[in-house]
Write a structure and sequence with these properties.
mainly alpha; 81% helix; 0% strand; globular
């Protein structure tokens, strides 16, 4: 999957250059979304593979890994045509890929994945992604589900790719690096509370948009507080991480998510009386950029590096 992420990164740079030259009409929100299927998702799958080993490789997950890059390229193609049936048809390939991951997640549940918090992280990530895929198809088709219009429709797809898919995978690696500890220790209890917020926060926030502003505000603050707590946990795990590159990347990720989530909390508080301190386009550029590149990209790369160091150390210890 690292190869897929590298190819995806080169494609994204080409698309971003084309957008900057005005060869294609894409906004920054569009580019932030495209970065997820092209780079973030393959990196998340690679980190999941390294953490799982060979134990959790189900048939749907194997098919999903094969389908990831072609499906991501179809998403790019869907942004080069006008919204409508053709664009939605191209984006539907990504929804199909996301469905394979959802089946892989359900397979984990069937095998008893609900019994440990470690397994629940991957299950949640795999189940959130097709929700984002469905909102992507709705966006490319030009639908206004439940009365929501652009850019909210596409931003919902962005939300479920970053907060829904990537954040639980990052939380999982953080928990593993912090070590087992005592189940009743203060540190372990606090991290479990943080983890609960990371896991349910994306769904709560999406529901808040439907239920009403008070629920949306509460959900946004829960998610922001949980990811700020995750940032503190990332800093706490740095002492256990091997390799300067891994430490640096995880440190950048922790700093970035703190900035991004403080900004998100300010936006949520200000938007509740409909007098936002930070407007939506500013949120996309500031919060979205810090979250996508600083937190998610650097975090996935850092934990993948750390997993590589752990694999090499394990091989060296073998007789």
């Amino acid at each position: 999957m690292m190869r897929n992420a590298l190819i995806g990164g080169l494609v994204w740079i080409a698309v971003a250059t084309a957008a900057a030259m005005r060869w294609v009409e894409l906004e920054w929100i569009d580019l932030l979304f495209l970065f997820a299927p092209l780079v973030i998702v393959p990196l998340g799958l690679e980190l999941t593979r390294r953490v799982d080993g060979a134990e959790q490789v189900s048939l749907p997950l194997k098919f999903a890994r094969v389908a990831q890059l072609p499906s991501a390229l179809l998403v790019v193609a869907s942004f080069w045509v006008q919204r409508g049936a053709l664009a939605a048809g191209l984006a539907a390939g990504w929804l199909g890929f996301s469905g394979l991951l959802a089946i892989a997640g359900l397979t984990r549940l069937w095998r008893g994945g609900f019994r440990s918090l470690d397994a629940v992280f991957a299950v949640a990530a795999f189940l959130y992604l097709p929700v984002g895929g469905a909102w992507l198809v709705a966006s490319r088709l030009g639908l206004t589900p439940m009365g929501f219009q652009e850019p909210i429709v596409l931003l919902t797809a962005v939300h479920f790719h970053y907060a829904g898919f990537a954040a639980p995978i990052l939380a999982r690696s953080t928990r593993l690096e912090l070590g087992p500890g005592s189940p009743r220790s203060i540190g372990r209890v606090l991290f479990n509370v943080i983890a609960a917020g990371v896991l349910v926060g994306p769904g709560l926030l999406a529901a808040g948009f439907v239920i009403g502003p008070r629920v949306k505000l509460a959900a946004a603050l829960i998610l922001a507080a949980s990811e700020i707590g995750l940032a503190a946990s990332l800093f706490g795990a740095l002492t256990r991480v091997r390799g300067l590159a891994a430490k640096s990347l995880i440190g950048v990720a922790a700093s970035s998510v703190m900035f991004a989530m403080i900004l998100a909390a300010l936006w949520a508080i200000g938007e509740y009386p409909l007098q936002p301190f930070v407007h939506l386009q500013q949120m996309a550029r500031l919060h979205g950029t810090a979250n996508a590149f600083g937190f998610t990209l650097c975090g996935l790369l850092g934990w993948t590096q750390a997993a590589g160091h752990a694999e090499r150390a394990a091989r060296e210890r073998r007789p």
